[in-house]
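Z., the sequence and structure:
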Amino acid sequence: MKKTLALVFTIVGAIALAAGVLAIFNPGQLALGQNAWGVAIVGGIFFLTGMGLLRSVPE
């Protein structure tokens, strides 16, 4: 269960981080009018959380 949650956090975080960074450098590209910096920061938090969980869960 923990490994699945870590994988979901990592994938969602990577997608949000990529979308946020792309929207920062290309204004107007982010759907729904969200703040690009907010999406990038939340994506980074999710990505780092997922990676930390993946490293702490034994095989």
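The mean pLDDT is 89. Helices lie at 2-25, 36-56.

Let me know what you think.
H.
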